Amino acid sequence: MEKFIVHGEASLEGTVNISGSKNASLPILAATLLTREECIIRRVPDVSDTNYMLQILQNLGAEVERASGTVVIKCEKLHSHEAPYDLVRKMRASVCVMGPLLARQNRANVSLPGGCVIGDRPIDLHLRGLKGLGARIDVEGGNVNLEARFGLKGDTIDMMGKNGATVLGTDNVMMAAVLAKGTTVINGAACEPEVIDLANFLNSMGAKITGAGSPRIEIEGVTELGGVDHTVIPDRIEAGTFLVAGAMAAKDKITLRRVRSDHLASVLEVLGQCGCKMKIGDETISIGKADQPLGANIITEPYPGFPTDMQAQMCSLFATTPGLSVVKDTIFPQRFMHASEMKRMGANIQVDDGTAVINGVNQLSAAPVMASDLRASAALVLSGLTATGQTEITRVYHIDRGYEHIDDKLAALGARIDRIPDH
Ligand code: EPZ
């Protein structure tokens, strides 16, 4: 295992290139199962989650080549329809091979994903949707067996859950429906940019999908799909994370390149309310500290609302912003593991029933802290950047799941982060 030593009181300047989106890459990689032809996917971030997905695809029989950010995949001959527990437990998003496997082979056997620290991660909505397309589903021994002996049949599917729409659930049903007989309508679909990117990928393969990005997606089934050359959208959560780094620690300003500011509207709105100085260009955003920083009230919601994946990072900013801020996570109410670690650094945060009440303090101070999940780890790095002293963060494998070389990128902006073995 490795740990970070984050040297405090950083002063950031310069530019940073944002990587391709992890959360767009994962379902798109799974969608290559839908064709026998070669798919080229560009700007796939080199993070452990995409590596796990490629391992799962190879396990199923895919031929995979990877050269820097470009992945070439050919699922000509699949010799399995199983995604085993030892791979699924490492990465919940592997459930999104269910839909394409079912569409390609009329059957799939995927382990139930475990929970994780941000909360129970059910897949009941995925299964409801796939059952709606005619799949027979048995859950036993921690595995989900799906079968559609005579192929899937299009229908109208309601995918809305009690906590809103499901991103990967929408992806799974869309990938199953593209080869189903007849037309499918998904009501209550997730509207995230990553769903749109997947729909664009599938349409480039020859699918007939309309309405992606809206709560109602219509899919006209086709008989086969072809290979494609696709570039993944920029990672809006990595971009948001670096925006908060600039808001906290920019000397004057930092500039993000290769971003889609239209995917960050809710984050930019909140950072504007906090007084941050921003300049939005074509595929670039510059940000500097606020002259008079202000706290804010945030409620996470499905896109285009404020993203739950940016909630921890905002807690870092608010921990040293004068006044009161309130952060409510309606999607993952337990997603506050970062708060207890920030309190070890002197933050004044009270968490109750999915809501964090934060009273800003003047400055945090270094303490040994532990990463617990992907975004909480990023939040602790941000806190370490402005704290006094050297903050030690253990279990940085969490951060490597979804951030491509975050320590190198921050070092290029002037931060000092040592990555050392943690025996
Ligand atoms: C995606 O996860 C993202 N992961 C998550 O990002 C993100 O936090 C989440 O969407 C919400 O935006 C990927 O895209 C790989 P959901 P997903 O299904 O699709 C409930 C990160 O940090 N639900 O949209 O698994 C669920 O409990 C990760 O990059 C059901 O009740 O999340 C949650 O409350 C973390 N039943 C809500 O819906 C289901 O069958 C939204 O979950 C599915 C979900």
Largest sheet: 4 strands, mixed
Tell me what the CATH architecture of the largest domain is. Alpha-beta prism
Which parts are unreliable, with pLDDT below 50 for 5 consecutive residues or more?
Answer: none
SSE-based structural type: alpha/beta
Going by CATH, the homologous superfamily of the largest domain would be Enolpyruvate transferase domain
CATH class of the largest domain: Alpha Beta
| Backbone CA Rg | 21 Å
Into which percentage range does the β-strand content fall?
25-35%
The CATH topology of the largest domain, please?
UDP-n-acetylglucosamine1-carboxyvinyl-transferase, Chain
What would you call the shape?
elongated
Quaternary organisation: single chain
Number of domains: 2
Give the total of beta strands: 24
Portion in helices: 25-40%
Description:
This protein has 423 residues and is α/β, with parallel strands linked by helices. It folds into 2 domains: 2-18 and 234-421, UDP-n-acetylglucosamine1-carboxyvinyl-transferase, Chain (Alpha-beta prism); 22-231, Enolpyruvate transferase domain (UDP-n-acetylglucosamine1-carboxyvinyl-transferase, Chain, Alpha-beta prism), CATH 3.65.10.10. The chain is built from 14 helices and 24 strands. The chain has helices spanning 22-31, 48-60, 85-88, 98-105, 124-132, 167-177, 193-204, 236-249, 265-273, 311-319, 337-344, 374-386, 397-400, 406-412; strands spanning 2-7, 12-17, 38-42, 63-67, 70-74, 82-83, 107-111, 136-140, 143-147, 156-158, 183-187, 208-210, 216-220, 229-231, 250-257, 277-280, 284-288, 297-300, 324-329, 348-352, 355-359, 369-370, 390-394, 417-421. Strands 22-23-1-24 form a 4-stranded mixed β-sheet. α12 (374-386) links the parallel β22 and β23 (390-394). α1 (22-31) packs parallel to α2 (48-60), α4 runs parallel beside α6 (167-177) and α11 runs parallel beside α12. The radius of gyration is 21 Å and the shape is elongated. Bound molecules: ligand EPZ. Ligand EPZ binds next to α1, α5, α6 and α12.
